[in-house]
Design goal:
CATH superfamily of one domain: Tetratricopeptide repeat domain
CATH class of one domain: Mainly Alpha
Largest sheet: none
CATH topology of one domain: Serine Threonine Protein Phosphatase 5, Tetratricopeptide repeat
Number of helices: 16
CATH architecture of one domain: Alpha Horseshoe
Number of strands: 0
Shape: globular
Oligomer: single chain
Length: 281
Amino acid sequence: MAQARADINAGRMPEAESTLRGYLKTHAPTAEAHFLLGYVLFREKSAKESLAEFTSGAVLQRPSAADLKVVASDYVMLGDYGDADKWFTAVVVEKPDDADAWYLLGRTKFNENNFQASVTCFERSLTLRPRHIESENNLGLALMQVNETDKAEAAFRKAIAWQGSSPTDAQPFLNLGTLMEGQGKVDQALPYLEKAALLAPENPKIHEELAQAYAAEQKLSQAQTELEHAVKLAPDTSSLHFKLGQIYRKEGKQDQAAHEFAICAQLNSTHSSAETPNPPR
């Protein structure tokens, strides 16, 4: 068990998994071994196997709040937000001062479209962990959903300001730029979207939003470049091909436009994603 913990602390998850499976084969099963293996499998993104280990361990011993947080995160990975909500809620009941659990519960409530509850969770997380950029940024997103746009803008601005002169998190820049663009303030949105693209050049959602802003300013060649980049990053997203086709058509590039519309139709027929990925932090 000590070796498994050492491997986990060093980030050697495959080695830890092998050690724990060997231990469970040669020793009487213990809750600790099952819970540790469940955590390792979660880290390896094997959510169903992870849950099976926590279930086995729970027969022997009640899981701790930390264990339940991993269980809830497994359900998030599986897209089962109802069960994730149940277990994150259990964690904050047991550990009401766990800022991270409140943040994760807020994210879960958001995915359940329970936006007002999400606002409450993020506010609680920020009370416990002030100046946490991700909580403030997600608070802004939740406030947008309850039509508190002024408060949402203030939250995004805080999340940007807290990063100082050397920001690393592109999401608040993306979200503030998108909010301003939606309000018709494209000239004000562009600097934030351009900064987001510099910080996260591999995020196709940012390039999509930046292209939309450029198109609104009739900067079609720049919009084309951004959408071409987005398509390279997310080639199975049909909406990106459609938008690129529209730009080509506006530029008089009919053959290229037709090619993109054909790809879009083919992807839609195979039920590929129409929503551009935006990897959250």
